[in-house]
Amino acid sequence: MCSSVSVCVFVREFASVCERLAVCLSVCEPVCVCVPTMPLPVPDVPASRRLTLDCRFLLDHRVGRGVCGCCGALRPRYKRLVDNIFPEDPEDGLVKANMEKLTFYALSAPEKLDRIGAYLSERLSRDVARHRYGYVCIAMEALDQLLMACHCQSINLFVESFLKMVRKLLEADKPNLQILGTNSFVKFANIEEDTASYHRSYDFFVSRFSEMCHSSYEDPDIRTKIRMAGINGLQGVVRKTVNDDLQSNIWDPQHMDKIVPSLLFNLQSGEGTESRSPSPLQASEKEKESPAELTERCFRELLGRAAYGNIKNAVTPVLMHLDNHSLWEGKTFAVRCFKIIMYSIQSQHSHLVIQQLLGHLDANSKNSATVRAGIVEVLLEAAAIASSGSVGPTVLEVFNTLLRQLRLSVDYELTGSYDASGNIGIKIIKTHEERQLQEAVIRTIGSFANTLPTYQRSEVMLFIMGKIPVPGVHPALTNAGSGGCEGTRMIQIMLLKSLVQVTTGFQTTNMLTALPNSFLEPLLSFSLMEDPEVRLLVLTILLSVIDRHDNTPKFSSISIISDISVLKLKVDKCSRQDNLFMKKHAQQLYRHIYLACKEQSSGPQHFETLYTLLALISMELANEEVVVDLIRLALALQELAQTNEESLSVYNRCAVHALSAAYLNLICQLTTVPTFCQHIHEVIEMRQKEVPFLLPEDVFIENPKLPASLEKLEGDVLFQQSKITEVLGGSGYNTDRLATPYIPQFTDEDRLSKRKSIGETISLQVEVESRNSPEKEERTPAEEITFETLKNAIGKYPSARYHS
C-alpha cells in the first residue's frame, strides 16, 4: 500500500513538472535550463524523490554543485543569440551574420536590451578574469554596435551595463584594455540619447581619464597612447554631460580641477616637440596626432561650450596650474594658454577672463616682478584679442588696477622691499625686473585703451590725469615711504607714459570733447616742470590728440622743405568745433610752446616735437586768425633767441632760430602767398651762405658745428616782421594783429612749476587776454575786492536784493 501511494505521488509530481516544461517550451523564449550534476545519492532519499528534485532544479534555474552543462534548446533566446556571436577561435572576430540577428532581435524586442547587456557584461567580466582578451574585444564590439543601433526608451538600463563593462576595462592593468574601454566610451559619448537619465554618474570616468592623462608608463609609445586615450575620454565626458541638465554639473570645481590641469599637463609636455618640428607640412601623421595637438582641440571644445556662469570655473584651474608649476615667469606657455582661451570662448565673455586675470594680478601683488610681469604680459595679449568693448562694464576699474600695480612697482623699486614697513631682507628686489614690469603695465594699458570707443577712452584719459601727482597739491607724496621727490617724479613719468599709450591712435572729430579744460589745463601745467622727460611726454600726448590724419610721422625731423607737396599732407578745412576750441585754448597752447623754448634743458627731441606740434596746429586747427597768431609766435621765438634775455646757451639759441625758420618755411607754403614765400626763402638762402648754424640741417645733428658765441644778428639773415605784415596784409590778413609782437601771459599755472618759489607763486596775478584788443596796450591792474568794497556796494543799492 505504501509503495503504491508513493508511486502515485511521483506520477502526479512528474506530470506537473512535464506540464510546466511544456508551457516553457511553447513560448518563443525558453527559460534557461542548466543540467546540474547532483550530489551522490543519499541512501535515505528515494529515487523518485531525487528525480523530482532534479526537475525542480531545472525549472528554478538553480545550479547545483559539480560540472555545469547546457541544454541549448532550453536556453533563453537572447542568450543563444549572444553566445552565437562569439566564434570558437577569437582571432576570427565577431560573427557578423549572428550579430545582425542579435541586433534585429534587440530592435524587435527592446525590453530585452537590459538582459542582453547584463549577459554581455557577465561574459566580459568572466573573460577579463580568465585573460581571454580576444573575447573581450568581441564583446565590446558587439556592445558598440548595439549602442549605435538602438535608441529606444529602454536603452538607459542597457547603458548601465555598458558603463559597468567600460569601467571594468579602465580598472584593468593592461594598457590595451584601458584604451579599448576608452574608445568604446568615446563612441558612446557621440550618441545622442532620446531619453534622459536621472541617476547616471560620470565621476569615476573623470577621475580615471585624468589619471590616464598623467600616465608614466615606461614604454614611451604606450605612454603616449594611454595619455591620448585619457584626453579622448575627457573630451567624451564633456560632450556627454555639458548639455545634459540632469547630469552632475561638469563645470563644478571638483571636476574642472581634474580636467583642466590634465589637459594643460599634456599641452605643456608637447611644447618641446612642437619647437623642434620644422613645419606642419613636414610633420608625419604620427606627429599630427600628438597629445599636445589633441589636447588643444579638446581644450578649445571645452571652452567653446562654456556659458557665462561657467567661465570662472574653467579659468581658475588654469591660473592655479600656472602658479603651482611656476609657469608665469616663462610667459610663453601662459600666453599660449590664454590665447587658446580668448579665441575659444564666446566674444561677449572676454571681459570675464580679463577680470579674473586682473584679480589674480592683485592677489600676486607681493610676488616677484617676473611673476607679475608674466601675468601682465598675458593681460596684454588677452586685451589685443578681446573684441571692442569687452573690458566690461567697469572700465575704469580695469585701469585703476593696472595703475595701482604700476605705483606698487615704483614703491618696491624705491624701497627695495615688498614689505610696507621697509623690512629689507624678505625678498630681494631687482630693479631691472621692476622696470620691465612697469613697461609691460604701460603697454597693457595702451592695449586695453585700443579696444575702447572714443568716449570711453576720453574718460580713461581724464582718470589717469587725475592720478598724476602734482608737487604742492599732493604733499603725501613727499614722504620717505614713497621715495620723496624721486618717487613723485617716477610716478609722474610712468603715468604720463600710460597717457601716451592711451592717446596713441586716438581719433576724434571734436577737439572740445577730446581736450576739455579738466584734461588740458593739468596737462599743460606739466609742461612747466623742470624735468625734460616730463615735458617731452606732455608734448607727445598733445601730438597724439591733435593729429587726426596721421601727419605726425611726416614731421619726424626738422628740415627746410623746399616743396611740401612731396610730404602728401592731409589737410581738412577747420570745423566750427575746432574754431571754438582755438578761441578758448589757443593762447594757452602758444604760451606753453613759447615757454618750452626758453627751457635750458630742452634738447633736440624737444625742438623736433615742438616743430611737429606747430605743424599739426597749422593743418588741423588753423583758420586765418590762428595762422596770424602762429606767425607772430614764430617771430617771437626769433626775438627770444636774438635778445637772449633768458641767458640761453649757444646751442639753444641756434635751435630756436632753426625752429623758427623751419616753421615759417612750412607755414608760408600752406598759406600759398607768393610774396610771403619769397621773403622766407630769401632769408633761408642768406642763412645758408652766411650763418648755416641757424638752420635745422646744421643744428639738429649729432655733432653740430656751432660758434663759440652768438652775437646779435642783423640784416637779411633775420625774418622781418614789417615785411611779413606788409605781404600778408595785401592778401587780406589782419595787419593790426600782425604788427603786434607776441608777448606770453603769466597765469596761475605757473604755481605748478618747480622753478617758482612759494612767494612768487602767491604773488602771481591772473590776467585774461581779450583777443580783440592789441597785446601791446597797457593793462590796468585788476581792482582788489575786499570786504569793505562789498559792504559799500550793498549799502549803495539796498533794494537790489529785493527786486532781483
From TrEMBL:
<dbReference type="InterPro" id="IPR049152">
    <property type="entry name" value="EFR3-like_ARM"/>
</dbReference>
<dbReference type="GO" id="GO:0072659">
    <property type="term" value="P:protein localization to plasma membrane"/>
</dbReference>
<dbReference type="GO" id="GO:0005886">
    <property type="term" value="C:plasma membrane"/>
</dbReference>
<feature type="compositionally biased region" description="Basic and acidic residues">
    <location>
        <begin position="284"/>
        <end position="293"/>
    </location>
</feature>
<feature type="compositionally biased region" description="Polar residues">
    <location>
        <begin position="269"/>
        <end position="282"/>
    </location>
</feature>
<dbReference type="InterPro" id="IPR011989">
    <property type="entry name" value="ARM-like"/>
</dbReference>
<dbReference type="Pfam" id="PF21052">
    <property type="entry name" value="EFR3_ARM"/>
</dbReference>
<dbReference type="InterPro" id="IPR016024">
    <property type="entry name" value="ARM-type_fold"/>
</dbReference>
<protein>
    <submittedName>
        <fullName>EFR3 homolog B</fullName>
    </submittedName>
</protein>
<dbReference type="InterPro" id="IPR051851">
    <property type="entry name" value="EFR3_Homologs"/>
</dbReference>
<feature type="region of interest" description="Disordered">
    <location>
        <begin position="269"/>
        <end position="293"/>
    </location>
</feature>
<comment type="similarity">
    <text>Belongs to the EFR3 family.</text>
</comment>
